[in-house]
Specification:
By secondary structure, the protein is of the alpha/beta class. The chain has two domains: 154 residues, TPP-binding domain (Rossmann fold), CATH 3.40.50; 74 residues, SIR2/SIRT2 'Small Domain' (2-Layer Sandwich). The protein has eleven helices and nine strands. Helix 1 crosses helix 11, helix 7 runs parallel beside helix 11 and helix 9 packs parallel to helix 10. The radius of gyration is 19 Å and the shape is elongated. Bound molecules: 2'-O-acetyl adenosine-5-diphosphoribose.
Length: 259
């Protein structure tokens, strides 16, 4: 990575207290979780309309659950990578850091991030289609497909936002509030094409934040980002972290060693 870019980023971060980070499938790719639109992306192999829509679930809940059960099996053994770990460790460096994620794998919490907004839900949660109650479901493979609510017997569905569904309004409101009040917003490993998440970095930029994008390739966001860092999140975030800590120490601040 270009050293000048790293310098200007550390300068931007030096005075920042409030950070927001929007993450997408790319940050979990190095942990072994498939992305959606990349070379081996899920939407290259499967049709979203037959697996990730309310209509698909109505038509064939068994098929939809088999697909989610397979994905849960893929994600179960996976652990956070250095990208997730750096974001969790930044809780020691910044007064306020929030992670807004489109990922449903739960890896940010596993890494230790405490302020996480899961915009698209969580694959380890299920929701009763009758009562709307949300509960944890950690067994994989599932003992029964499709699973049913232990309280009322109705079908359970994955607690995930499907195509054509609205996001939870209060989570979305929180995500916009975090984006519009932060001083630096990172967009990490997202193709920035799925709305409304893709609008968050733009909202941050309009409100005066510096927008920093980390991705293997340019996206529709790149043109409006203040700094674009091309590469793997699991390489670039640790690089930024090391430089940031060096600078803080040089400025007399007592900072713990990095993750
Ligand atoms: P995508 O699969 O659309 O995009 C992944 C992005 O990560 C691409 O821009 C890649 O270039 C980049 N990338 C891949 N590996 C990377 C790495 N190691 N480091 C940095 N960048 C990397 O995933 P999302 O943008 O998250 O929705 O997709 C958004 C939503 O679309 C998902 O949440 C999902 C999907 O349909 C739901 O399931 C509701």
């Amino acid at each position: 990575m270009n050293d000048d870019k790293l310098d200007s980023l550390t300068e931007v971060l030096a005075g920042a207290r409030r950070i927001a980070v929007l993450t997408g499938a790319g940050i979990s790719a190095e942990s072994g979780v498939p992305t959606f639109r990349g070379k081996d992306g899920l939407w290259r192999q499967y049709r979203a309309e037959t697996l990730a829509t309310p209509e698909a679930f109505e038509r064939d809940p068994t098929l939809v659950w088999q697909w989610y059960d397979w994905r849960r099996g893929l994600i179960a053994p996976v652990v956070p990578n250095p990208g997730h770990r750096v974001l969790a460790a930044w809780q020691d460096l910044f007064e306020d850091i929030a992670v807004i994620t489109q990922n449903v794998d739960g890896l940010h919490e596993k890494a230790g991030s405490r302020n996480v907004v899961e915009l698209h839900g969580n694959i380890w949660k299920v929701r009763c289609t009758r009562e709307g109650t949300v509960s944890e479901s950690l067994l994989t493979p599932l003992p029964e497909i499709p699973p049913r609510c232990p309280d009322c017997g109705a079908l359970l569905r994955p607690h995930i936002v499907w195509f054509g569904e609205a996001l939870d309004a209060s989570l979305l409101e929180r995500a916009f509030a975090l984006s519009e009040t932060c001083q630096v917003m990172f967009a990490v490993g997202t193709s920035a094409v799925v709305q409304p998440a893709a609008s968050l970095p733009c909202a941050a930029g309009r409100a005066g934040a510096k927008v920093v994008e980390i991705n293997l390739e340019p996206t529709p966001l790149t043109r409006s980002a203040d700094i674009f860092l091309r590469g793997k999140a699991g390489d670039i975030l640790p690089l930024i972290d090391r430089r940031l800590r060096e600078n803080m120490r040089a400025g007399g601040r007592d900072v713990p060693p990095g993750p």
